[in-house]
Specification:
This protein is an alpha/beta fold and 210 residues long. Helix content is 44%, strand content 12%. The strands form 2 sheets. Strands 5-4-1-6-7 form a 5-stranded parallel beta sheet. The protein has a two-stranded antiparallel sheet with strand order 2-3. It starts with 8 loop residues before the first strand and ends in a 15-residue tail after the last strand.
């Protein structure tokens, strides 16, 4: 890897780094279920608050779905599966070359996942992109650190401190790859090396010498 110091640990973000995302697909799927002005609904402040609580693990999937139904009468009798399908619409998938790279990196580094995510999205990831060539999520990562389980979210310093402590890793030996500058800046305050890829950037060049 191209770095001045020896990196032993790689911590990856999920959405926007590993999983390609498109929020418009989520909007379109809710519209297909009959939600008018779905984009406006998802941009509303009360939805943002509930979404943040869902990612922090303050509410569970059933409570999240109940909120969506309460705000959209047309979804009153829609199944949990249909709501989940619409909600997961923003998740496109993980390109194969990234999955192959993750497996290769495990031969050189200790690889972790650190994601602000929720239980519905995580279950989709387990059932879809990480079901690859007979592998499962635990084959790609030493450990997955997920906001809804940790009850804290990036860029809060607490979440990075908990990862360092739980994984027993040194910040100066750790590279954190996240597409949000506020998250990488927070990690840097603890001495963690970071890289912030631009939208749709192929960041695999970081490991060209592996």
């Amino acid at each position: 890897m191209k770095t001045e110091e020896r990196i032993r640990n790689i911590v990856f973000d999920l959405g926007g780094v590993l999983i390609d995302i498109d929020p418009e697909r989520c909007v379109h799927r809710f519209e297909e279920l009959g939600v008018k002005e779905a984009a406006k609904f998802m941009a509303a402040e009360d939805f943002k608050v509930i979404f943040q609580r869902f990612e922090r693990g303050d509410i569970d999937a059933n409570e999240f779905r109940s909120f969506i139904r309460s705000k959209n009468e047309v979804l009153k009798d829609v199944s949990d599966e249909d709501i989940d399908y619409a909600w997961n619409g923003m998740l496109i998938g993980i390109p194969r070359y990234k999955l192959d790279l993750l497996l290769e990196l495990r031969s050189h580094y200790v690889v972790f996942l650190l994601s602000n995510t929720n239980s519905i999205h995580w279950q989709w990831a387990l059932d879809n992109p990480f079901q690859y060539r007979g592998f499962r999520a635990e084959d790609f990562f030493e450990q997955e650190y997920l906001s809804f389980r940790l009850r804290t979210c990036k860029p809060e310093i607490t979440i990075f401190e908990r990862v360092l402590e739980n994984a027993n890793i040194e910040p100066h030996e750790t590279l954190f790859i996240d597409d949000r500058p506020e998250n990488t800046k927070a990690a840097e305050t603890l001495g963690i090396k970071t890289y912030t890829p631009k939208a749709n950037e192929d960041w695999s060049f970081l490991f060209d010498n592996e």
